[in-house]
Design brief:
The complex is a heterodimer of chains A (about 675) and B (about 280). With about 675 residues, chain A is an alpha+beta fold. Chain A folds into 3 domains: about 260 residues, MetI-like (MetI-like fold), CATH 1.10.3720; about 240 residues, MetI-like (MetI-like fold); about 100 residues, Beta Barrel (Thrombin, subunit H), CATH 2.40.10. In chain A, about 65% of the residues lie in helices and about 5% in strands. Chain A has a 7-stranded antiparallel beta sheet with strand order 1-7-4-5-6-3-2, with no helix packed on it. In chain A, a hairpin with a 3-residue loop joins β2 and β3. Chain B has about 280 residues and is α/β, with parallel strands linked by helices. Chain B folds into 2 domains: about 140 residues, Periplasmic binding protein-like II (D-Maltodextrin-Binding Protein, domain 2); about 100 residues, D-Maltodextrin-Binding Protein, domain 2 (3-Layer(aba) Sandwich). Chain B has a 6-stranded mixed beta sheet with strand order 2-1-3-10-4-11, with helices on both faces. In chain B, strands 7-6-8-5-9 form a 5-stranded mixed beta sheet. In chain B, β1, α2 and β2 form a beta-alpha-beta unit. In chain B, α2 packs across α8. Chain B is globular and about 55 Å long. The N and C termini of chain B lie far apart (about 50 Å). The N terminus of chain B is likely disordered. The chains are: A alpha+beta (about 675), B alpha/beta (about 280). At the A-B interface, α3, α4, α6, α9 and α10 of A face α1, α3, α4, β7 and α6 of B.
């Protein structure tokens, strides 16, 4: 069934009405949420708002470029870089250790003997504890950990490094154990049947299967961590953030401008560098990461002894029992946080919905037709301009960390929920815009191409040819970002932008340890509930949409990273096949030929399909084929000749690069080979 | 793959082996960051030099950018002496048994001033209802604790409910003055000493910012020693401060930047009221 059939089928009667109900519900809930948060958007442009905005802009007109300050900014940028690198190392250690503890090794169907109950329950308890620890670590934003660690270890880089280590370690650990639990169980069971020790199974069966994915994810997180390294300083944890915090506190717009320009330049340089690394052989990245680690340890003046002497721990002892009025207040804060995250998500979705089609090549300067009529005129130039402006906007907003934006908006509209909402909405517009435009580029080209061939305009093609195919995925992405934004709301609240973060900040600053415990528990519960509910709803949305195919078109490496940002904790797409062959790099792919870099060879005579390693495309299906190796072109580089092995449509150009990595999935059914 | 794991293993070993808890005989001082870092450096440097001479050991000033960090550092023994506010001292005492050493002559008669932007139409404290308001740091005695206390007890103003929106925390006294001056908030509460200095040095435009009320006197700032510091070090430290004499030019310089005529011995009793107020306002739990 194609898109137009479904569209016309839905048109009459119920489903259409239902859809309007959904839209109405979203609009009403957003309106209620805005009232609830008390955000007054007029403050953006009232007398004070304009004056503040002009002040900020005047800073950009005359940034502080004195040699002293520039030198300091440079030093702090380097410090941020080192914080990010060491934070990643700590995160990987924490994540890997906890993952190894929590991985569940599948049991034989009829085990010859089971260990006594206390041991079984003991193991189970340890695993559960490990999972809870991971959940705790990743539910609390870095900035909160950083502030707590500033209390324990004093100012400097250690709090920032540990903060990144915990939050990111939590999500790395979760992903690592999910990856490990989704490996081919047969190898594990075979070892189990021979009585191999659990540890050896992990070491020799599980980890070799997932090692490369573990490393790829760690390297991807490195980039995000360096980005957070630029801002954690606001709470005294080293790096560029300390200068931004001071500039905001004392309204030094010239210094603020310099620091913000430095963050932007830093983040963009980072993105270019990682794009280059992704195109290069993977050992480049290793060398870079290893050198970075060594340099960081050598150059950062880290008081290691403090790490082993957290005498401040005694401060964490509580003084009074729980205070019920505070618990009620915390409940209010939860609602506040949800409302802020919801408003921010809806706002950013609106912006992204307009910007994404403008940034998508196929809908502006390009076409879904294989050989479109090329017309050049003033209109084309305008379209190019619009596309590049949209892309630049999405890129720039995505690059700015929410916290940094929150500080700017606190100066602009004053402290409170409005600043938080705006900061998250702006950053998120960049992320969602990128995601939306990727989805728009990936639609099945048949419908829109047919419309374009008949002369449909761009808007018409978008609304009636493309949108019906992608609606469900856009909704799922938006919902996913809402889940992320709940956590981000707690983060921006920390610098005075409302929500639960504000309460966390007070509890830490005044040493109200009972309150802090309660708030942290609330955060963990909130994040867990939102994630679980969100997972279910997204699953339902995507399942209801299984008819729409995803067809991969060209993708640049930097585009691929965003997908990881979207669903970093997604398990592997194993629905299609149970044997996964990891592919490091796709060098060339046509329906006839596949040139890849892979450590494991593709088994011959079995039916595979190529899929990117991300949940975003799990619902889609690429062409299936049987691969036959025809040549080796260097270590781990192979050329395969492909033969289609099912009757699926193999037509489009479906492959390019994907930095998240590729894998081959074996078809479920015995291959129904159609040899040509 | 395994070499990669090895790298992490090596890193961990490196971390563990490079731990060397060695420090020479260095005395570490710090202070709550109630003003911007440059100002604090200016304020403390003469005293640091003086202590270095009197105590015959290296004295180091460790800057912090967060009030609580100073308390935590003192409690954890990372610093030996800290110049704390009344409230932060009480926190340090309750949590880690810190002891008061010396204070300035002005500290027993300390006050806060409520200031308002001239364009805000605020002339009395009561007028602040429904306006925007800024405290200093959440942990400040003169910028938060006592202003909150007097608002609640003398004027029956609940800072959480009676202003336009929740109160803003500027982070430091001079930052509060700047916020009121620029109109970002309509009124605020600051430390009288910082206010007077900013007026004297023309760092604030007094046409734009007016004082509307001065609080009754209370006890604020105090040099605090960590719990388990050797008594003779504390004694030497105290003597160095107590012997500062306004009539000697080199001492006068040290005293002047601290805003004092002389230093006096501090007594835990001085801060009993502060502790009571801290508990009644709910800031100390």
């Amino acid at each position: 069934m194609n898109a137009i059939d479904r569209w016309s089928e839905r048109r009459p009667g119920g489903p259409m009405g239902q859809r309007f109900l959904v839209w109405a519900a979203i609009a009403v809930s957003a309106a209620i949420a805005i009232r609830f948060t008390g955000a007054d958007f007029r403050r953006l442009a009232d007398k004070d708002g304009i004056a503040n905005a002009m002040n900020i802009l005047s800073g950009f007109a005359h940034p502080d470029l004195s040699p002293d300050f520039l030198q300091r900014i440079f030093k702090l940028s380097v410090e941020s870089l080192f914080i990010g690198i060491l934070g990643s190392v700590v995160a990987v250690v924490i994540g890997a250790v906890l993952a190894v503890i929590t991985i569940r090794v599948p049991d034989l169907p009829q085990p010859p003997k089971t260990p006594p109950a206390p041991i079984r329950y003991g193991f189970e308890a340890v695993r559960t504890a490990g999972r809870w620890l991971l959940a705790l670590f990743r539910s609390i934003p870095e900035i909160v950990w950083a502030y707590i660690f500033v209390r324990l270890f004093g100012l400097g880089v250690i709090p920032a490094i540990l903060a990144i280590g915990l939050t990111v370690g939590g999500s790395i650990g979760k992903l690592y154990s999910e990856l490990a639990e989704s490996v081919d169980p047969r190898a594990v069971l075979a070892l189990r049947a021979m009585g191999t020790h659990r540890f050896h199974i992990l070491l020799f069966s599980v980890i070799p299967q997932v090692g490369r994915q573990w490393i790829a994810y760690a390297l991807f997180r490195l980039e995000c961590n360096i980005r957070s390294g630029t801002i954690l300083g606001v709470v005294g944890a080293g790096g560029l953030g300390s200068e931004i915090g001071l500039a905001v506190r004392y309204f030094q717009y010239d210094k603020l401008a310099t620091a913000l320009i430095a963050v932007l330049a830093f983040v963009i340089a980072l993105e270019l560098m990682s794009a280059w690394l992704r195109r290069s052989p993977s050992w480049y990245t290793f060398v870079a990461a290893a050198l970075g680690t060594v340099t960081s340890i050598a150059f950062l003046d880290i008081p290691w002894s403090d790490l082993l002497n957290p005498a401040g721990l005694s401060l964490l002892a509580g003084h009074v029992p729980f205070d019920w009025s505070f618990i009620r207040a915390a409940g209010g804060q939860v609602l506040d946080t949800l409302a802020m995250a919801w408003v921010a998500t809806i706002l950013s979705a609106l912006v992204a919905f307009v910007m994404a089609p403008l940034a998508a090549t196929s809908l502006t300067t390009g076409s879904y037709l294989p050989d479109p009529v090329k017309a050049v005129g003033p209109g084309t130039v305008l379209l190019y301009a619009v596309r590049w402006i949209s892309r630049a906007f999405l890129q720039a907003t995505r690059a700015m960390p929410e916290l940094t934006l929150a500080l700017v908006f606190v100066v602009w509209v004053g402290a409170g929920s409005l600043a938080g909402i705006l900061a998250i909405a702006i950053h998120n517009a960049g992320v969602l815009g990128r995601l939306y435009s990727d989805v728009l580029e990936e639609v099945e080209p048949g419908m829109p191409a047919a419309m374009q061939a008949m002369g449909a305009g761009r808007l018409g093609t978008f609304l009636f040819g493309v949108l019906p195919q992608v609606r469900a995925r856009l909704a799922a992405f938006t919902l996913y970002r809402f889940e992320v934004n709940v956590r981000a709301t707690a983060m921006v609240g920390f610098v005075g932008a409302g929500g639960i973060g504000d309460a966390l900040n007070t509890a830490i600053s005044l040493f109200h340890m009972q309150d802090l415990t309660l708030l942290l528990a609330t955060m963990v519960a909130l994040v867990t509930v939102v994630d679980t509910v969100g997972d279910r709803i997204r699953g339902a949305i995507l399942r209801s949409d299984h008819g729409n195919k995803v067809v991969r078109r060209h993708k640049t490496p930097s585009e691929a990273s965003i997908e990881d940002e979207v669903a970093p904790t997604a398990p592997l797409p194993v629905e299609y096949g149970d044997l996964v062959v990891g592919i490091e790099r796709v060098i060339e792919a046509t329906p006839q030929r596949l040139v890849v870099q892979t450590a494991e060879e593709v088994p011959e005579g079995q039916c595979f399909r190529l899929a990117p390693r991300s949940r975003a495309s799990r619902a889609g299906s690429g062409p299936s084929f049987i691969a036959r190796r025809v040549a080796d072109i260097g270590t781990h580089h192979y050329v395969y000749e492909l033969t289609p092995c099912s009757l699926e449509n193999n037509s489009s150009a479906w492959v390019a690069e994907n930095a998240g990595g590729w894998q081959l999935l074996r078809a479920h059914e015995a291959p129904q080979v159609v040899l040509h | 793959m395994f070499s990669f794991k090895l790298k992490y293993l090596l890193t961990v070993c490196l971390i563990l082996s490079s731990v060397s808890a060695f420090g020479g005989p260095v005395l570490r001082l710090s202070g709550i960051p109630d003003e911007n870092p440059t100002e604090l450096q200016r304020k403390f440097q003469p005293m640091v030099d003086r202590l270095q001479r009197d105590l015959g050991m290296k004295v180091e000033y460790v800057p912090v950018i967060d009030y609580g960090a100073a308390v935590a550092a003192l409690a954890a023994g990372k610093i030996d002496f800290a110049w704390l506010g009344g409230f932060t001292y009480v926190q340090a005492k309750v949590m880690a048994g810190a002891q008061p050493v010396v204070m300035r002559d002005i500290d027993r008669q300390f006050t806060s001033v409520f200031v308002a932007n001239a364009a805000s139409g605020i002339h009395r404290v009561e007028d602040m209802k429904g306006k925007t308001f800024a405290f200093g740091s959440k942990s400040s005695t003169s910028g938060h604790l006592f202003p909150r206390h007097y608002l609640q007890t003398t004027y029956h103003i609940d800072p959480e409910k009676d202003f336009a929106g929740p109160p803003v925390f500027s982070g430091a006294h001079d930052a509060t003055v700047k916020m009121v001056e620029s109109g970002k908030v309509q009124a605020g509460a600051v430390n009288v000493e910082v206010w007077n200095r900013m007026v004297k040095e023309h760092q604030v435009d007094t046409n734009k910012v007016k004082v509307i009320w001065t609080t009754p006197q209370y006890c604020d700032y105090v040099w605090t020693a960590r719990k388990d510091l050797a008594p003779e070090v504390v004694q030497k430290f105290a003597t160095s401060f107590l012997t500062l004499d306004d009539s000697r030019p080199e001492d006068k310089k040290v005293l002047e930047v601290q805003g004092a005529k002389k230093f006096v011995r501090a007594n835990p009793k001085d801060f009993e009221i502060v502790e009571q107020v801290a508990r009644s306002t709910g800031l100390l739990k």
